[in-house]
UniProtKB/TrEMBL annotation, chain A:
Record family assignment: Belongs to the eIF-2B gamma/epsilon subunits family.
InterPro entries xrefs: ARM-type_fold, eIF-2B_epsilon_N, eIF2B_epsilon, LbH_EIF2B3/5, Nucleotide-diphossugar_trans, Trimer_LpxA-like_sf, W2_domain, W2_eIF2B_epsilon
Keyword Cell cycle recorded: no
Domain W2 residue range list: 472-637
Keyword Kinase tagged: no
Name of the protein described by the UniProt record: Translation initiation factor eIF2B subunit epsilon
Cellular compartments per GO CC: cytosol; eukaryotic translation initiation factor 2B complex
One Pfam family this sequence matches: W2
Assigned keywords, A-Z: Cytoplasm, Initiation factor, Protein biosynthesis
SMART domains: eIF5C
UniProtKB/TrEMBL annotation, chain B:
InterPro entries in the cross-refs: eIF2B_gamma, GMPPB_C, NTP_transferase_dom, Nucleotide-diphossugar_trans
Entry function: Acts as a component of the translation initiation factor 2B (eIF2B) complex, which catalyzes the exchange of GDP for GTP on the eukaryotic initiation factor 2 (eIF2) complex gamma subunit. Its guanine nucleotide exchange factor activity is repressed when bound to eIF2 complex phosphorylated on the alpha subunit, thereby limiting the amount of methionyl-initiator methionine tRNA available to the ribosome and consequently global translation is repressed.
CDD domains for the chain: eIF-2B_gamma_N, LbH_eIF2B_gamma_C
Keywords, ordered alphabetically: Cytoplasm, Initiation factor, Protein biosynthesis
Top-level taxon: Eukaryota
Limits of the Mannose-1-phosphate guanyltransferase C-terminal domain: 343-441
Protein name as annotated: Translation initiation factor eIF2B subunit gamma
A family per Pfam: NTP_transferase
Length: 641, 456
């Protein structure tokens, strides 16, 4: 039956799928050091097993496993399965393909293009995908789409999911805009960006009668691809990931002549991908709760065990053990009074008496001696040995001495703390910080689900995001951004044109009105300029800095009202900083006047608004007096002529 | 004892028709002839059909008698209460509504005088009632536009487009702005997308300018002097406010009694405690996808009712719309009026011509002499057409005199114009009280007194 249907889709071709087995990142360190991602145990069964079973149930007839790390282990496993006649081997041919030179998702696809094994449309799976979707109708739908739109290269499979649902990785928060034919118009992974505003190109709304904006979708990491996808990857060597691909196609729709569509899964169709530990936990829960039916955990539910505990074969649990939401592998030995919560313990690990493990993952063949405590997102590599009464919190442990070993990293002979980005301090981008945090999610994950149960009391950050749309202190944020930009500009000697661009973009980001822009920029320039050591060359330095920023000042102080803003800024600086050198104000005014930033009239007008008793008034008075005199003189000169 | 009605209807007919100034210099916009009736009759009749017995009609002071007598002739039964605005007062739509504050006791339905449609208003009412909405507005899909040549000089008709976002699950109106407010990028607050996870952004829907407003909205409008337009300011403001949460106040405020001092919209948008208690006790929720209570506990709720796709409906606010609605009115007459008899030839008209096709509408007091020919045109009150003239595809308004041997095609002739012998007009607009000289020929022009032209 399956065969017949599939023949309707592809007249002579068989239905093919590509599964990539490598994540090309270090999300799963240190476990991934020795264990390929594909063989990560999920309920004591390798992850790839679920993927392959799903593909064969979904109607795929030939699958290419593309592997570039731990190749032998993957090969061995697949061969073993074929020998044992696992279910999926009956309807589906599995080929393991190897290329050790690939360094990214894009490389793999380029390599596949070169090998030319794929004949038509195919299903593309990123590593770690588990699902129960019937793929043939999706392939058919893609096929129909390609008939009406020849450029259709890919149909992304997205899944509806609830906000803050556990199956939704917070780092992959997706924002998608489609037209009425599900053609993708906008695609953005919000990740952990904290922007309160989302920008869309206006033309997508004007060019289409109606545009659907979806913020309730989950990337399943599956896609139906036309045969043009692989050549597109080959032609564009900068496409490293699927997201690059989608973004690139959207941006250069005219040039590449290709479009992306999406299909939204609803109802009982489920798909998810294990891309990090948080998703590992989430998908384990989903599997356990039969969301992915007919795929279910291989381990049978033991009726005597309560609280969602799963154990593998040969694992014995004593009466005194306290287990909650735990998954134990095969042949795990537990001591007395062990407490394990929200954790995963892989096979053949020995756990001593009175050990507490919470929100952690313990690799295979570890030994944890009695009295130890492992908490808060700790991950132990295979073969770690913890001494008695060790306390581990929020760390990654490896069995061998890591390359970047430092004192204090050693916990025991076979347990060392792993530092992930030790020497790149100056290079810590948000991205890396972010990844670090994603590991910890396993810990705060439960905290989050607590929140869901307690939905009637609004959680803190929701509350925040629902308050007044424009945050009131935007102007302040803008000011700090300007200060940052200028400081960096001054240090790195960046051209002022770039700074102006930067300032303008912050201006739009924070939606600051022109008056405040002028005010804040002048203020920022002054604050920076005045931050000089009080030496004899003080004024020299001051004017040097001011000269450096001259293009910036010139750009913003353009008309009468801008001059007024500028003077207000000077006033603000003068009044607010007490310790200011008393001649500074006069100096700055003089400087600005000579450089023609501010006109005489503007100064005099401004001066007339000052209260006569203020300190500032006294400081400025001599200067304005001089101005008036100069004016009279020049007036006289003119009249003489 | 007076019975408090559920809705009070207000028809705004004080617009000057600034977008079609060519034909509204001397004539109230709401009296432009559309088929056999003046424009304002259509919304009034719509209200009458929907069950309204009373309506407040807002008009300009100096046009009152003209409008009154025109409406009396139409035989409309709904009781009309006139509210007038002095001509020199520049009052926006919101200002008009504020002016009526004392007369408005219930929730209000605001209708624009230029709305011609066959839509069934009950869909809108039900949506409003179902969710106890603050605002419900009626939106229409754009009409299939066939290429017809609009009289007057060729001009590029620039559509005023609104960006309207509607939550697909709940029909909540979550975003409303004019497309021209943005340059190249549209920015949405992230919280909006978080709250309404699947919204549809429309750029081609037509806002019918029919709004149902909760009573508190009128009160709020009364306290806020800054709004002058309903569509441009009041509605977008309230739509935006849906995202905000009421400020946390320690002690419950006596809101409605002394709202003046607070100036806060949430003080007005307070819901009845009993309603809240009922909602809390009920299992009803308007949305799925997060575990928030019904309506996200919003007290301000705006809804949009999008009329079914095959609905006929348009606002006569541009020349193009006027032209196309006039052209289609006969075909859609039955649906628009729900089977009211269509009087094509008024009994008081003197028709001696034998060539009047069945798409012509002849008003009262019209005098069509022998040997004239008419196809697909509207001839309004007291117009006289003399022998050997023919008029095709045109609208001729009141008191026009068309002399002999005149050929008119695709034209709009305004009140009191005189077309002298032998003129040939094609695609022209003749301004009111303008005289077209003998034997002149014009194509695609606006013919009007030059000083009147200055006005636009």
């Amino acid at each position: 039956m399956l065969r017949k249907e599939s023949q309707m889709v592809h007249k002579e071709n068989i239905v093919q799928a590509i599964v990539l087995t490598d994540t090309f990142d270090d999300e799963f360190l240190p476990i991934s050091e020795h264990l390929p991602h594909a063989l990560l145990p999920v309920f004591n069964r390798p992850l790839i097993d679920y993927t392959l079973e799903f593909l064969s149930l979904g109607g795929i007839e030939e699958t290419f496993l593309f592997s570039s790390a731990h190749v032998e282990a993957v090969k061995r496993y697949v061969n073993k399965c074929i020998e044992n006649g696992e279910g999926w081997t009956l309807t589906m041919k599995v080929n393991v393909m190897v290329s050790e030179s690939c360094r990214s998702f894009g490389d793999c696809l380029r390599d596949l293009d070169a090998k030319g094994v794929l004949r038509g449309e195919f299903v593309l799976l990123e590593p770690g995908t588990v699902s129960n979707v019937d793929l043939l109708p999706l392939l058919k739908k893609h096929n129909i789409t390609t008939k009406s739109d020849k450029g259709c290269a890919m149909t992304l499979i997205l899944q509806e999911s609830a906000i803050r649902g556990i199956g939704r990785c917070p780092h992959e928060e997706l924002l998608v805009a489609t037209d009425s034919h599900s053609k993708l118009l906008f695609y953005k992974k919000l990740g952990s960006s904290k922007d309160n505003k989302l920008e869309f190109p206006l033309e997508i709304f004007l060019d289409n009668a109606s545009v659907s904006l979806h913020h309730n979708l989950n990337d399943t990491h599956m896609a139906i691809c036309s045969s043009s996808v692989l050549p597109l990857f080959s032609d564009n060597f900068d496409f490293q990931t699927k997201d690059d691909f989608v973004r690139g196609l959207l941006m250069n729709e005219e040039i590449l002549g290709s479009t992306v569509y999406c299909h939204i899964l609803k109802g009982n169709q489920f798909a998810g991908s294990i891309t990090n530990w948080r998703m590992y936990q989430a998908l384990s829960y989903e599997l356990r709760n039969n969301w992915v039916h007919p795929l279910i955990p291989s381990t049978k539910r033991n009726r005597k065990l309560k609280n969602d505990v799963f154990i593998g074969e040969g694992t014995k649990i004593s009466e005194t053990a306290e287990l909650n939401d735990a998954v134990l592998g095969d042949d795990v030995a537990l001591g007395k009074n062990v407490r394990i919560e929200d954790s995963f313990v892989f096979s053949n690990t020995k756990i001593g008496d009175n050990v507490v493990i919470t929100h952690s993952i313990i690799g295979e063949h570890c030994t944890i001696q009695s009295g130890s405590e492992i908490t808060s997102g700790s991950i132990l590599e295979n073969g770690c040995v913890l001494e008695k009464d060790t306390f581990v919190k929020n760390s990654l442990l490896v069995a061998k001495i890591p390359d970047n070993y430092e004192n204090g990293d050693k916990l025991a002979d076979k347990a060392y703390r792993l530092r992930i980005f030790p020497d790149e301090d100056d290079n810590i981008s948000i991205n890396e910080l972010d990844r670090k945090l994603s590991r910890l999610d396993i810990g705060d994950f439960n905290y989050e689900s607590d929140e869901i149960e307690d939905a009637f009391s609004d959680s803190g950050d929701e509350q925040l995001s629902y308050t007044q749309t424009p945050p009131p202190d935007d102007t302040k944020l803008f000011y700090t951004e300007v200060i940052d930009s200028l400081t960096r500009g001054l240090e790195d000697k960046l051209p002022c044109d770039n700074l102006i661009l930067e300032i303008n973009s912050s201006r739009y980001a924070y939606n600051v009105i022109l008056k405040e822009v002028n005010f804040n920029i002048v203020k920022a320039v002054l604050i920076l300029s005045l931050r000089q050591p009080e030496t004899t060359q003080y004024f020299g330095n001051l004017s040097r800095v001011l000269t450096y920023f001259a293009p910036v000042l010139k750009n913003y102080i353009r008309n009468e009202s801008a001059m007024k803003d500028c003077l207000e800024a000077i006033q603000d600086v003068a009044v607010s900083s007490e310790s200011l050198h008393e001649k500074c104000v006069t100096f700055i005014l003089q400087y600005f006047y000579h450089k023609d930033y501010i006109s005489e009239d503007a100064i005099l007008n401004w001066f007339s608004t000052l209260t006569t008793s203020s300190k500032l008034y006294k400081q400025v008075k001599p200067f304005t007096d001089w101005l008036k005199e100069a004016e009279e003189e020049s007036g006289e000169e003119e009249s003489e002529q | 004892m007076t019975f408090q009605v559920e809705f009070q209807a207000v028809v705004l007919a004080a617009g000057k028709g600034s977008r079609i100034s060519e034909i509204t210099t001397t004539k109230p916009k709401c009296l432009l002839p559309v088929g056999p009736m003046p424009l304002v009759w259509y919304p009034l009749y719509k209200l009458e059909q929907a069950g309204f017995t009373d309506v407040i009609l807002v008009i300009l002071e100096h046009q009152k008698s003209e409008i009154q007598s025109a409406l009396e002739k139409t035989g409309i039964e709904i009781r009309i209460e006139y509210a007038t605005i002095a001509e020199n007062e520049e009052l926006g739509t919101a200002d008009s509504l504020r002016m009526l504050y004392d007369r408005l006791k219930s929730d209000v339905m605001v209708v624009s005088c230029d709305f011609v449609s066959d839509v069934d208003l009950h869909g809108l009412f039900n949506l409003f009632r179902m969710h106890d909405a603050s605002i419900a507005s009626l939106l229409l899909h754009p009409q299939q536009s066939e290429a017809s040549v609009v009289p007057g000089p060729k001009s590029k008709h620039k559509m005023e487009r609104d960006l309207i976002a509607i939550d697909q699950q709940t029909s909540r109106l979550v975003f409303l702005a004019s497309a021209s407010d943005f340059e190249s990028e549209l920015t949405l607050p992230r919280s909006l997308l978080k709250k309404h996870t699947n919204i549809k952004m429309y750029s081609n829907l037509i806002d019918s300018h029919i709004y149902l407003l909760k009573k508190w909205v009128i009160k709020y409008l009364k306290s806020e002097d800054s709004f002058s337009s309903i569509k441009g300011e009041l509605i977008p403001h309230i739509v935006k406010k849906q995202l905000s949460k009421p400020p946390k106040t320690a002690e419950p405020r006596e809101s409605i009694v002394s709202p003046k001092d607070s100036g806060d919209i949430f003080a007005y948008a307070k819901e009845d405690d009993l309603d809240l208690a009922i909602r809390e006790a009920s299992a009803y929720n308007d949305h799925i996808g997060d575990l928030k209570p019904a309506y996200h506990q919003d007290t301000i709720r705006c809804y949009a009712y999008v009329a079914p796709k095959d609905t006929f409906g348009a606002r006569v606010n541009t020349l193009m719309n006027y032209w196309s609605v006039s052209g289609k009115i006969i075909d859609h007459w039955e649906k628009i009026t729900d089977g009211k008899e269509l009087v094509l030839k008024h009994p008081d008209a003197t028709i001696c011509s034998t060539q009047v096709d069945n798409k012509c509408v002849i008003w009262d007091g019209v005098n069509l002499k022998e040997k004239t020919s008419f196809k697909n045109c509207v001839i309004a009150t007291n117009t006289e057409v003399n022998s050997f003239s023919r008029i095709f595809n045109s609208i001729v308004m009141n008191n026009v005199t068309i002399k002999e041997k005149v050929a008119i095609e695709n034209c709009i002739i305004c009140d009191g114009a005189i077309i002298e012998n032998g003129c040939k007009l094609k695609g022209c607009i003749v301004g009111s009280y303008h005289t077209v000289e003998e034997d002149s020929e014009h194509t695609s022009e606006v013919l009007t007194e030059s000083d009147r032209l200055m006005e636009f």
